[in-house]
Amino acid sequence: MSGRRRRVPEGRTPVRRNRLLLGGGLIVAGTLGVTAVLWPSGGSEPAGARASTASSAAAATRTPSPSPTRAYPLSKAPRTIPAVREHTAARGPGWRPAKGGRVVVGDAALADEGKLTAGELGLAYAGRTGARAGDVELALDKGTGGPESYTLTVRGGRVRIAAPAEAGVFYGTRTLKQAVHGGGTAPEGVVRDRPAKPRRGLMLDIARKHFTAGWIEDRIRELGDLKYNELGLHFSDDQGFRIESASHPEIVSRQHLTKAEVRGIVDLAASRHIAVVPEIDSPGHLGAVIAAHPDLQLRNASGVPARGAVDISKPAAATIVDDLLNEYADLFPGAYWHLGGDEYQALMVSDPSASYPQLAAAARNKYGANATVADLTTGWLNGRADNMRAHHRTMRAWNDGFYRSAGTVRPAKDIQVAYWTGKEIGARQPAEYLSAGRKLINYNDEYLYYVLGQPQTFVYPTGQRIYQQWTPRVVRGSTAVPARYDAQILGGVFAVWCDLAASQTQDQVAAGIRMPLRAMTQKLWDPRTPTLSWTEFRALARQLG
């Protein structure tokens, strides 16, 4: 600027303005904007200016005028993944992290969330104290709403996140973190948010392919920021057993996670309100156990071994599996457990009783003259469920572990259905499970199966297809189940299977599942059709990192 003062053209009708004196200068605020008048440094104002100022002061004495305020447009909802469910707009500058800002908590139970958020946003953690301008306040509010709901309020130069439980507060901090990412501003107003589905997860097959603890921990951080609450670990299969064992060290693969590493994974997950759901699949997919105990392998009437299947007519088979379940119950203290139960080779032949007469005999001996191999296998599932029920777990099993041909023995009613396929022998539609009152978790292999090497008919799922076509009610294929079953569908899990383990590195897996995870959390969090197009959603994902 030249330093010259602007003059009002002669003959123009003056417009009434409010005047505010700041530090020796005069700011004149009017209907057309703000005009700044600066006196020369170290000098005094001209006589005409003194007269104008005196006249204005006299007028102000007669008619008080409000102090000038900046006019802000109505705020817009923060741009996050998943998108927030509700936002009440307001006028104001919003909030962004600044020097001197703090994170304060209203309850000591929120210390972990407070310290994490402070570190991420470059703020100080001040613990339990009153909030002031520039601060983020975290609070427990036992009002209405589920444990994962929260309210985020930006007002008066500060942020308040309140929820009925710690998980909701954590999700509120994730919204705030995304809103200010890259120098952004959390908009003025109130966010009221909650998930549509209670189970939102990623499952990793760490049995067929070894993933490092550090890589798994990176996925946990990613899941937490996306408001997922579950990480499944399938760590036992035909190709490997990948966690250290004290009860049966002979079955553990050379490359494996130590128990110390697993504890670190579990602790990190807990800090992000993510439950780790372990799976020891049985009575199939136990090849790593059979390699050390070949006497337990199932053989047909001709002596041909069944790959990965233990002979459930032998009590020793149940003993070793229960040893492992009991051992790992202490390592994984969460509320959920996956029992597996899928693809038992004895039930994948046309006549199980003829092919495996020892199983047929054991079924009749245990459950009566009309019992079948399917009854014996269902009894196996129930036995493992009894074991884990004693550890106070909520259990699930693959849908093809629930056998229509089992007429004498029924699966325990509290076992939830992990529905992944409709390709098994005697395939059953999802509605058959739902109409019986069972709760179901969606693992639809059409959209949610990332199978390394793309064997058989599998292709890598895309975020676009999930975003545009899938919903939690699309359980099998691409057809949704009737809306009346929606409440029984607890959520969905995106599954990484490592059938051809060398097909991708773990970093390639991370890149390949990045957009599918973002698309899926949007569909699990908000049941409505997304407002963003796929192109816009993908651009937002790039922006948020």
From TrEMBL:
GO molecular function terms listed in the Swiss-Prot or TrEMBL record: beta-N-acetylhexosaminidase activity
Biological-process GO terms, alphabetical: carbohydrate metabolic process
Keyword tRNA processing on entry: no
Active site positions, chain numbering: 343
Annotated ranges, domain Glycoside hydrolase family 20 catalytic: 200-506
Keywords tagged on the record: Glycosidase, Hydrolase, Membrane, Transmembrane, Transmembrane helix
Leader sequence segment: none
Biased composition (Low complexity): 46-71
Region described as Disordered: spans on this chain: 43-74
Parts of the chain that traverse the membrane: 20-39
Domain Beta-hexosaminidase bacterial type N-terminal: 78-193
CDD domains registered for this protein in UniProt: GH20_DspB_LnbB-like
Family assignment from sequence similarity: Belongs to the glycosyl hydrolase 20 family.
PANTHER family found in the cross-reference section: BETA-N-ACETYLHEXOSAMINIDASE, PUTATIVE (AFU_ORTHOLOGUE AFUA_2G00640)-RELATED
The protein's name: Beta-N-acetylhexosaminidase, secreted
Lineage, broadest ranks: Bacteria, Bacillati, Actinomycetota, Actinomycetes, Kitasatosporales
